[in-house]
Write a structure and sequence with these properties.
- The chain is mainly β.
- The protein contains 3 helices and 18 strands.
- The strands form 4 sheets. Strands 1, 6, 9, 11, 14, 15 and 18 form a 7-stranded antiparallel β-sheet that branches.
- A hairpin with a 2-residue loop joins strand 16 and strand 17.
- The longest helix is centred in the first third of the chain and has 17 residues.
Length: 266
């Protein structure tokens, strides 16, 4: 009788261990920065139809506009994914001078682009008319994407240099020479969890030499489940097959890049 009881108990334990655990199925959604309608997604369990109006986040002028430089702060929010971004405010003036991620729809392919066209790209957006421009004023206070409610996985996004950054890389200007053939610029994405701990880091080379093609899909899935993703930029040269980052506090080249079609899993 005792032997039977022990056998039955062991069988029960083994069966319970083999039972598959119920896992949350993450659902994908893509932030295209275009006006869309969908059911729910406001972060509070609403089932109502919500529409994102991205035009309200686009400044009328690219440099010195009221939204980015009015001193009232700047923030945007995606109702579907709860993804948001606001100014890191490095200079404590609530303006874009300290970096940030701004929504834009300015497209122009010209060699005469200057800092006054800082929110311009030289090719069409990945989809629609809108995209976002990231300005990394300093790596000490980086721009970021953040989930306003809870956490999620930023699976991938598309990335490209801005028209102004590309013009300086290719031709130089009064502040910077053109990039040498062995030069590079890379963007580093760092995942941060709800406790403020780093989850992982991923990198993408905007330039490896002067050449870039067009929008590049950047896989960020290795960052895992995050509260936010922070972006930093580095430049340097390849010497003897080894990449050597610059130790300067600020970038030589304009520290801008554009992103579009952010795929999120929640």
């Amino acid at each position: 009788m005792k032997r039977f009881t022990i056998f039955a108990l062991a069988l029960l334990i083994a069966t319970s261990c083999d039972k598959p655990q119920t896992e949350k199925v993450l659902k994908p959604a893509t932030v295209t920065f275009e006006d869309t309608s969908f059911a729910g997604g406001d972060g509070e369990g609403s089932s109502t139809v919500t529409t994102s109006w991205w035009a309200q986040y686009i400044d009328k002028i690219q440099y010195g506009g009221d939204l980015l430089y009015g001193g009232n702060g700047y923030a945007w929010y995606d109702n579907q994914t709860t993804l948001t971004s606001y100014l890191p405010d490095y200079w404590k003036d609530n303006t874009f001078f300290g970096g940030g991620i701004a929504i834009s729809n300015f497209v122009e392919n010209s060699a005469n682009i200057t800092y006054e066209q800082q929110l311009t790209i030289g090719v069409k957006p990945v989809s629609g008319a809108n995209f976002a421009v990231c300005y990394v004023a300093t790596n000490l206070c980086p721009p970021f994407l953040e989930f306003k409610y809870g956490t999620g996985v930023i699976d991938n996004l598309y990335i490209i240099p801005t028209a102004y950054a590309n013009a300086v890389v290719q031709n130089g200007n009064a502040f910077s020479p053109a990039m040498p053939k062995n030069g590079y610029v890379r963007v580093e994405a760092t995942g941060v969890d709800e406790l403020g701990n780093t989850t992982a880091t991923a990198e993408c080379y905007l330039y490896d030499g002067r050449n870039f093609s067009s929008w590049k899909k950047w896989d960020l899935s290795a960052l895992g489940t995050v509260k936010r993703v922070e972006f930093r930029m580095f430049e340097g040269t390849t010497e003897g097959g080894k990449r050597v980052d610059s130790t300067a506090e600020y970038m030589t080249y304009p520290s801008y890049f554009a992103i579009d079609n952010i795929t999120v899993l929640r």
